[in-house]
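Notebook p. 47: complex prediction with glutamic acid.
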Amino acid sequence: MTIPKTPLIFVATSDLAGKLRGKAFPAEQLNKRLQRGVGWTPTNVQINCFDEIAESPFGALGDLLLIPDARAEAKAEFGEDSGLHFIMGNIVTLEGEPWDFCTRGLLSAALNRLHSVAGAHLVAAFEHEFQLKGAPQPVGQAYGHGGFSQQRDFCETLVDVIAQIGLKPDSIMKEYGPNQYEVVIGPEQGVRAADAAIMVRELTYATARAYSEQATYTPIRDVASVGNGVHIHMSFVDDEGVPLTYDANGPCGMSALTASFAAGVLKYLDAILALTAPSVISYERLTPHRWSAAFNNLGFRDREASLRICPVTAKDPTSIARQFNIEYRAADAAASPHLSLAAVVFAGAQGIEEGLAAPTPTEDDLSLLDASELAERGIVRLPQTLEEALDRFVSNPVVTGWFSDGFAQVYRAHKQSEIKKTAELDTDARCRLYEDTY
Ligand code: GLU
Ligand code: MG
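Predicted complex, structure tokens below:
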């Protein structure tokens, strides 16, 4: 007997909880849905990552539309089963205006701001670390061929489906931590870079399911080990696609645009961290000596920096200019990639607008410096709890000014419900809760 099935398409938004939520409709309705979307509810934005609803200014009121964007479709086959089929959408008001809490709309606004201050388009690639939840691998598998071979089939399928949906697989490896892997894709321009990050995460979960495994993108599973970072590589091009990131005579190869962008990101980093590292346990990862990010410093090829100037392998000037990129390392997958990238781009654009000078890369161990030595060098230890990060966000008028009135308060209320849910738990219990969520 064949079991009847109607193919469905899921239209999705990557929300403040960093979750992918939406509704499915019969695939044959696609043309209609591309115009009209599906109904959406304002208070959904206050559903936290544990499916609890935080205090919401909207209550039961209001209606919105979630409209699929035909350019952001992900469809992949996994053998016999129905596979994965979703389309990223934008949340708009009934009048068709972008909704203030749609992360995809916020990213578009940030990218427009960057273009208006610098004539630049952003090109970005996300590097993702995750862990498989199966039995712990024996020690000695860090970057190991053994650890990789154990999941070679999984890796080959994941890379295959990434290519199937039209993204560019770059590399995949057994990372340092237990059962930890890293998947890297090639750069994409504009909003598509964040859409691609969502797609890679969903493909990872789906591939794991196909192999009866479970994947987690939680920021950290075990504080005795390393975290799962999301590193965002960024470069800039002009309207004609000419690279704008590199200048052979600039500081560490940075063009004036890149230097001011980097300075803006570092200046506002403590205030945007609540958006890019937004879970309670994100702050267990952002500690010194974990190769994550603990200070608002620029590193020249240094993996202990929040922002890193990456090496280029090219030799000829044109290819160098195209490859040259900076990497934001203070993000994790509890954040919507759209919101994370929006925050970083707003900060960078602000730095360009303020004409900030190139930051000086650090080369020493900043964790050995005391508060006055840090202050002398203009370096800030990043917030060490989500509460502290939220305080820095809501109390920075420049940063809250990038968003609509009330956005910061709604975001804080959302995150406070998450803090409350985990308040009574010890660190291990918190980590377990989050690894089931992301
Ligand atoms: N796992 C580290 C992090 O949490 C990154 C290690 C690396 O440099 O790839 O960001
Ligand atoms: Mg890595």
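Notes: The domain at 106-402 is CATH 3.30.590.10 (Creatine Kinase; Chain A, domain 2). The chain has a mean pLDDT of 95.
Next step: compare against the earlier run before touching the bench.
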